[in-house]
Amino acid sequence: MTLRELIIQGYWYLFSVSGILSILSYFFIGLLIFIYTCHIISILYAKKFLYSFDSDVFLQLHPWESLPSVSIIKPLKGTDTNLYSNLESYLKLRYPKFEMIFCIQSETDPVHQIVDQLISDYPSIKTKKVKGFEPKNFENPKVTNLVPGISAAENDLVWMADANICVEPNTLLEMASHIMEGGGLVHQLPLSMSLNHTLAECLEVVYFYTSHARVYLMASFFGVNSTNGMSMLFPKDVLNEITQGLKKYFFSSMEDNRIGKDFVKSNRTLKLSRIPLYQNFGSRTVDAFRKRMVRWTRIRMYFMPWLTFEPCIECFPTGILFAFAFYYLYNVNPLLAFTVHVLLWFISDATLSYVLLNKPLTFDGLLLMYTLAWFVREALVIPNFVQAICSKKIYWSGHDRTLQCCTDEYVTNT
To answer: What is the rounded (10 degree) CA torsion for 351, 356, 362, 365?
Structure first.
């Protein structure tokens, strides 16, 4: 056979059904190898980087009185059963000079009672209450609540932190160390706490200790912007210079990502804290978790349309592609291939969770609940994705907001 005949035969094979399926099969296997490589990198990175901060060594190098002063800003709305303990964890921080600013939009909000109790219980901590702006024209309610707090901040650094999280005593020490080393913005890996171990709580824990953590750690490892708005620390003057005191994000649905992007554009470095934050909601339901996942997926896809392929990095969809590829190329039983893949993925997720947990495991009945939650969470990926792509609207703060493609800004219907 001549070279010309070989080329023609190869050309027709590539564009035949069998050729296309072969190419897709090899692509799926390559994708799977890449994903499992990411699994391994995230586990090793978490093991080496997280929880590696030694506060005693840091304080030997940086005297107590040399640390920059910090204003902690808390946007508050409504109450839940864990709010007092969440806020109290910040008042117990091991740090020489900081103030707590509570931003509350409504004078009739019951959260005033909890804040007043905290102020009474910790008189030695400098605290203040600030009235947040009421959102007009359906602005981002969190941003409008934060802006007056930033203006009222008196210290060198500003730490914006959500109300539903609690922190470890050395967290601020660790985050401030990055700023002192030249960091522009410090953010934290969000994890989740489970006190009652209900299915809803376990779903939250599984998601934030596996899928979300893996993507977040990989983004940090490769230097990709992955900032989340639950916890961010930065110099106040830099924040005002870059973000106009957050005022430029009034109509943004992803203000945290925008802040990170703007810091990068201004040649400021983003640093991941070595100490995670812990979300500690008062009450959770499976439906609330599912709606949260749908809303986040919908926002991400409209802001970054290429994330339409996001399900292809999750366990079950990837397993289906993997099973097809091995069946087509090597005639391997697809059910066997899928089962092996799910088992390997589960072991990988369990390993990452163990590293993030940072304490010995106890083999009791709770492991069965978390295993069940893992399967439920994975099974919800495709239904949540389908629901996310079927609408442009997100329901937020009492109003429907319509997302616009390729931007995180929205228009409001009602």
So the answer is: -80
Adjacency order of strands within the sheet including 270-272: 126-131, 98-104, 70-76, 157-161, 231-235, 185-187, 270-272
Instruction: Extract the tokens encoding 88.
Output: 């109290």
Residue 82, C-beta contacts closer than 8 angstroms, at least 6 positions apart:
164, 166, 195, 280, 281, 282
pLDDT, tens only, 45-102: 999 999 999 999 999 999 998 999 999 999 999 888 899 999 999 999 999 999 999 9
Sheet holding 410-412, edge to edge: 393-396, 399-403, 410-412
3-class secondary structure for 294-328? HHHHHHHHHHCHHHHHHHHHCHHHHHHHHHHHHHH
- Cβ atoms within 10 A of the Cβ of 373, count? 24
Bridge partner list, 48? none
Query: Cα separation of 214 and 303, whole Å?
Result: 21
Do residues 179 and 68 touch, judged by C-beta distance below 8 A? yes
DSSP 68: P
**CA angle (219 as vertex; 214, 220 as ends), nearest 5:** 100
Measured between alpha carbons, how far is 348 from 35 in angstroms, rounded to an integer? Answer: 11
Render pLDDT for 190-230 as a digit per residue (tens, 0 to 9): 999 887 788 999 999 999 999 999 999 999 999 988 899 89
Q: Which residue has the higher pLDDT, 2 or 278?
A: 278
Q: What is the 3-state secondary structure (H, E, C) of 240-259?
A: HHHHCCCHHHCCECCHHHHH
Check if the beta carbon of residue 295 is closer than 8 Å to that of residue 322: no
Distant-in-sequence, close-in-space partners of 162: CB < 8 Å, separation ≥ 6: 74, 75, 229, 230, 231
CA distances from 138 to 92, 134, 162, 413 (A): 36, 10, 20, 10
Name the β-bridge partners of 70: 98, 157
What SS3 state is found at 184?
Answer: coil
Pairwise CA distance, residues 312 & 319, whole Å: 9
User: What is the distance, to the nearest Å, from the Cα of residue 187 to the centroid of all Cα atoms in its chain?
Assistant: 10
Q: Is 402 left (phi over 0), alpha (psi -120 to 50) or beta?
A: beta
